[in-house]
Amino acid sequence: MLFRVSEVNVAMVALEVPEVITSLTSCAIRCHVLAGSCFSFKYNLVTSLCSLGSWIVPSNGTSSLQPSEGLFTTGAFCNTSLNFTLETNETASVCIWMSTKSYNYTTSVNSCLARRMHMYTPKTSDKFSIMTSIVIRLQKNFWIGLDDIEVENVFRWVDDGSLLDNNYRKQIFAPNQPDNHNGSEDCVAYNLKYFPLNDGTCSSALPYICEKGTTESTF
């Protein structure tokens, strides 16, 4: 699966000198041929330059891309030396960073933003499955990037403010949840007792997971 990287504050670790390649598809195929060392590439629509790379890493805060360039990954774009983890299943892959300490919801959201990431947003069943596997494996509750802080019972994802789909909501929350117990539960977490998702008090301290943002390629 090919992803276009939506973040601007990242840089590609180059493998070799760029070459002129006739198309984006041909550049992707060239990276595929070098599977095992090539995990990312840049392609310039104007110059037709194809630049192959290995890991994508955080940059100094400025984009290294030209206006006509796109940065793509094959899914394996986590630099484990920086404590990122690549989690995958048969149909999706995501690069995450997991906290080892517990914090309230707002602190957790801001911590992810400070890392140029966002709190994990399992908007699809594929990503939801990945997160569920992590929770079961580690036997821990985790904050996710979903809340109804602004308007009660109107849940929004933290990465782009989009609304939680009502049908999807019925699939991912535990039975009889969310219930806004005592009128004070606005933040959502994976909860081993009220599995899988439950609304909780935002001031509660829980571990959290940050996610690197990617979107499927439409370059």
TrEMBL record:
<dbReference type="InterPro" id="IPR001304">
    <property type="entry name" value="C-type_lectin-like"/>
</dbReference>
<dbReference type="InterPro" id="IPR016186">
    <property type="entry name" value="C-type_lectin-like/link_sf"/>
</dbReference>
<protein>
    <recommendedName>
        <fullName>C-type lectin domain-containing protein</fullName>
    </recommendedName>
</protein>
<dbReference type="InterPro" id="IPR016187">
    <property type="entry name" value="CTDL_fold"/>
</dbReference>
<keyword id="KW-1015">Disulfide bond</keyword>
<feature type="domain" description="C-type lectin">
    <location>
        <begin position="91"/>
        <end position="211"/>
    </location>
</feature>
<dbReference type="InterPro" id="IPR050801">
    <property type="entry name" value="Ca-Dep_Lectins_ImmuneDev"/>
</dbReference>
<dbReference type="Pfam" id="PF00059">
    <property type="entry name" value="Lectin_C"/>
</dbReference>
<dbReference type="InterPro" id="IPR018378">
    <property type="entry name" value="C-type_lectin_CS"/>
</dbReference>
